[in-house]
Amino acid sequence: MATVRKRGDRWQVQVRRKARTPTSRSFRLKSEALLWAREQELEADQNRPQAHKTLKGITVADIVSRYRDEVVPRKRGADRETLVLNAFLRHPLAQVALSDVTAGMVNAYCTERLRRVKPGTLNRELDILRHAFGVARRNWDVPLAHNAFAEVTRPKGGAPSERRLHSGEQERLLSECFRCRNPYVRFLVELALETAMRRGELLKMRWCDVSVEKRTLHIPVTKNGHARTIPLSGVALALMRDLRDHYGQSSERLLPITDNAAKMSWKRLAKRARLENLRFHDLRHEAISRFFEKGLNVPEVALISGHRDPRMLFRYTHPRAEDIAAKL
Question: Domains, the chain, ranges and CATH?
Answer without folding.
Answer: 2-56 (no CATH), 60-151 (1.10.150), 169-327 (1.10.443.10)
